[in-house]
Amino acid sequence: MAENTIYDVLIIGAGPAGYTAGIYASRANLKTLCFDGWQPGGWLTTTTMVENFPGFKDGILGPQLMADMRSQAERFGVQFVQEGVTKVDFSSRPFKVFVDEEQFLAKSVIIATGSKARRLGLPSESKLWGKGVATCATCDGFFFKNKIVAVVGGGDTAMEEANFLTKFATKVHLLNREDTCKASAIMEKHARSNPKIEFHMNVGVEDILGDSKVTGLKLKDLKTGSLSELPIDGMFLAIGQVPSTDFLKGQVELDKWGFVVHKEHTMTSVFGVFAAGDCVDFRYRQGIVSAGCGAEAGIDAKLWLEQNK
Known about the structure:
By secondary structure, the chain is α/β, with parallel strands linked by helices. Helices cover 24% and strands 28% of the residues.
């Protein structure tokens, strides 16, 4: 890549949104560069079987789905840099994107950095990630059919996840660190009225038990300090999402949680800078939704470039 090359479209992030945006941009004959980041393919590469992405009637492994998306983008001419962007300068055009001190220039930028689930920070959590520890009931709930699971959290997402999991699990333990839930009254009422859900208040997860898969949790009563073990087959975290947008502060408008704000369609607060996927979407967090948003961003970038030559 020539040092002074100015790309038509530069994509930061390479999950379903980034790869799909690249496919649309490059098929429009736009010179496109995509930064894979430190985890090419995004969070779908941490899942096993994906069964809710259209077109794969028997399902497809998450890493394979993302590898295929990347290959498709490459086939249309997207160039890739497997580095994470460290800072940006959107104050003037061409826009400047940096990997440490190395500078890349672009006429337009698509932000597709995604988000990551807030974690507990336990060593056992990392060891058993994808082996019973999960963050998306819609994605992985089916794998816990006739099993016992736990949901950690007390907000609306936790209530929604717990209710959804009762479609598959025989029992759902909802674990909340507080003595009251942060969820809306209607969501909590709905969860409490479900006979398959058992609430545990004022409890913290001290450890996740199991060698090759989750077998239980070590819990701490936060009022008395007493410890207990809870046998389960899986644990779903619902304690919030953290958008990967720290490097964008002061460059584009972010909401109070750090998600990128859309102003018109997929355009951000900076003309010529677009955003797609989970760095914008705190509601759905689905691969197919991110891919669709990536397609929109690719189309919006193309139209904007045509109008702002």
